[in-house]
Design brief:
The chain is built from six helices and 15 strands. By secondary structure, it is an alpha/beta fold. A hairpin with a 2-residue loop joins strand 14 and strand 15.
Length: about 240
Amino acid sequence: MRVIQITDLHIGQEGEDTYFVDVRENFRRIIAAVQERRPDYLVLSGDLCYDQGDLEIYAWVKEWVDQLNIPYEVIGGNHDDAQLLTQAFQRQADYHPDGLYFDRNWGDRPILFMDTSTSKVDTPQLEWLQQQLQQLQGDIILFIHHPPLLAGTPFMDNNHPLEDLEPLQDLLCAYPGNIDIFCGHYHVERTVRWKNLLVHLTPSCFFQIDSHSEDFKVDHYRIAFREISIQPDLTISSVHYL
């Protein structure tokens, strides 16, 4: 099973200045690459909007993604509005009062999707996650916008980490199996191993941030997506830049 993850689209309104980057053209290029590769699933892992959740922007993204005729899932980032995202993508069955989070089974592999659109994970979602983990066994996969740990990138770690990390970390690290976690938010390519967690940070469709700088600094403007091969006892992933 092949999955493509794209993240941090940061689509603005038509004609809006988005840091001098043509984010809509970037997205069209990513969609063309997805179309060429024809994965089994596509995951949009948050920050679809440039600044804040917007129904018009979500509708524009949905129109492009629907044209692929590929099953896809979408979760929110801190520049999204979970309620508007749910409405636009018609995911009411997966919506909870505190966010859009859900589980799927792809073949024999359980896949969890979490919501960090408020930059934190509230108690109801933590309780849901605990229930999910109690029912599962073996290695699992989790998609979430924010990394559930600090990733050694000073600017993002110091200024924009997921809030209240410890309760989420405690739940994930108590799970007896390995968890592959695919996220974005940091605008860098990085893999971090901690205990039973293997966290894959996927680069943005906008720009990439200097992973060594204490201050905000753009590293480069090459956009990217992640391709994930999910096999019964093996998960392989690689990042592709355009």
